[in-house]
Amino acid sequence: MKYTSVFLLLLWPSLLQAQQKWQSRYVKMKKDSSLVYMPDEKGNVIPDFSQVGYHHNQIPIPFVKVVKSISPAGTDADQQLIQNAIDEIASLPADEKGFRGALLLKKGIYKIPGSLKISNGGIVLRGEGEATKLIATGKGQRKLLMVSGQGKLEEIAGTRLKIKDKYVPVGAKSFRLSNTADLKKGDRIVVFRPGTKQWIQDLKMDQIEPGNGTIQWTPEEYNLKFERTITAIRGNTIFIDQPVVMAMEEQYGGGEIFKYQFNGRISEVGIEDMAFESEFASPTDEDHGWDAVSFNKIENSWVSGVISHYFGYSCVNLGADSKNITVRNSKCFAPKSQITGGRRYSFNNDGQLNLFVNCYASEGRHDYVTGAKVAGPNVFFNCRSENAKADIGPHHRWAMGTLYDNIITDGEINIQDRGNWGTGHGWSGVNQVLWNCTAKSAAVQNPYVSGQNYSIGLKGEKVQGRLKNRPDGNWEGQNQQGLEPGSLYLMQVKQFKKQIN
User: Fold this and answer.
1) Which is nearest to 144 in space by CA: 125, 122, 168?
2) Where are the domains of the chain?
3) Superfamily of domain 59-152+264-353
4) What pLDDT, on a 0 to 100 scale, did the predictor assign at position 4?
5) Which of 35, 131, 166, 433 is the least crowded, having the fewest Cβ atoms under 10 Å away?
6) pTM of the predicted structure, to 2 decimals
């Protein structure tokens, strides 16, 4: 009996650990580690987030050969020195993979009184780690490094087709069209969901309590566009590369598709291994560098190993026309500004199909954040926030399809009706997923119509949120250890890689 008791005591920790393992009712993991998604009564499932980031996660970020190196003078002339080198590489022919070459900024301090601009694809700007430092000198609220193409997304005339299904659920990668005669595999399309008066009424976003400059939502501002590629066609059914992240509902106008072009959007740009710093006059100074790195009108590019200090807004800011961008291994320290709205968005994403991984932020307000009408899927994975001044999550006006996976913060993570904050943010997001995150507290609410939000395995206090009487989100396993898989994103990527190899 004595030996039996000792054996049980020794065995108890492993038994307890085995008992603690649990799986979500929304995503099941089979013995072979493959995932099974459990649909609701309408067929909606948690989306597949595996193909966000650089080239849909299908090829690794490359190491591009250095074609020019420069060293700093330590004066304001450094700005023109770097810009001339960028422009020189921009004039080179691109290779078969779209690269012109890398510009190596040797270690030292580079003074930048204005802004640097990369407006051609195929250019990599690389430093020698923290020893390469670019300083936004003097006054002026500005972006230190601006990476952007030109133009805008344009519908190709005569290609618009109606989606025939009365309801296309979240997570779907196929649907029926009126016809497919003029379509082929590889076509780049927009999946279009119209804004309607009835939808806004049912969402109660025409009834936002008046505040300081509150603007009620209007239908024409919520015509939503999701960039996709056709992967197969069978009869009148098309298959697309990325999941639907907001249901197409007949009662709200259904959906359409059309071919598009984006002349002037650039690609294959990398920013690597360097530090950015802004001069400032005081802890609340706002007349100084605002963004360290800004991307827009760009796709299939990356930011890796960058560090920022003292900028008022962000370390990395991805604009609405940024697509398939990977931001990794980057850190945002000690922003200098007032601590109020429109400031300290450490890693901001307004684009689609973007990935933020292994990032760190301190003293920010909204460290891992999306803006208005952000079209997913997008992912924030394995990121940390310390000394947070506000919350992480969708910030305002209906971001769609974001995964926050293993995010750790000493502040809040919120997905809620923000009401009249700002100029009437209202419902901040839909089909947002918190997976195995840790926070001081979290408010997760479901909008009245058109989708759900999920808190799965969150460690932290559940709070009501700003506004009472909003539908509760889908909570599961709060403060419960042992969620399997520990990372939904990594398991989805593993399954995707297995399928393509």
Assistant:
1) 125
2) 59-152+264-353, 154-261
3) Single-stranded right-handed beta-helix, Pectin lyase-like (2.160.20.10)
4) 37
5) 166
6) 0.95
